[in-house]
Design goal:
Length: 219
């Protein structure tokens, strides 16, 4: 579903809040919801892997991504130096003992300041495969489509209704708007939970309308 179509549906569901919601508000809320759905469900269309070749004695590297990419999280890091793939252990920078980071075979990785680092420091050139999750491109024009598939649009719209009702409350102080916002938030979180269950049950959203026995998503 295109951005302009989603905006129309959001506008129709906002009710009394529509007079306080600008076109830019709706676009921002739709983009926020799209990012939440991608990050929470780890939609496979936003997952990718990149290759990085280490240099002996070098600890930290830039991840080779396109300039437009928006890295959300590293899922796992794997290297193959002996014919058997090894998954590295994620570490926090604060957990590392730099005195022990001597040249050797990497056992763990960390991420800081846009760089990925390895410990021990690689003692030779090793090809490392980094599996990561990217945030979707921001929707800008009416024909843009969210990363979230059509089956997730109802949850996306409910998020926008939640935000719209909150804005109405902030603008007017009307407690009814706050009550409506609370209700929309609860439904959004329920739909997100249901979407997670269905997505992981079916492995792919392209196979899914809703899962067996599940209640219909809000519409």
């Amino acid at each position: 579903m295109q951005l302009s179509q989603i905006e129309s549906r959001v506008h129709s569901y906002l009710g009394s809040a529509r007079k306080y919601a600008t076109r830019q508000d709706m676009k921002d809320w739709i983009n926020e919801a799209d990012m939440i759905l991608v990050s929470e469900l780890r939609l496979e269309d936003q997952e990718r892997d990149v290759l990085l070749t280490t240099v002996a004695g070098t600890r930290e590297y830039l991840i080779p991504l396109a300039a437009s990419s928006r890295l959300f999280k590293i899922i796992k890091v794997v290297y193959d130096n002996t014919g058997a793939a090894v998954t590295l252990t994620p570490k926090r920078w604060s957990e590392l003992n730099l005195d022990t980071m001597i040249n050797g075979c990497p056992e763990a990785y960390y991420f800081r300041g846009g760089l990925i680092g390895f410990t021990p420091i690689p003692g030779e050139a090793v090809t490392v495969r980094i599996y990561l999750l990217e945030l979707p491109d921001l929707l800008a024009t009416g024909t843009d489509e969210p990363a979230a598939s059509d089956w997730l649009i109802p949850a996306l719209i409910k998020y926008c209704v939640w935000q719209g009702k909150l804005k109405e409350f902030y603008q007017t102080g009307d407690q009814r708007a706050l009550t409506a916002a609370d209700g929309a938030e609860r439904i959004f979180r329920q739909e997100l939970k249901l979407a997670k269950e269905n997505y992981h049950y079916h492995n792919s959203p392209r196979e899914l309308t809703i899962g067996p026995g599940a209640r219909p998503m809000w519409s």
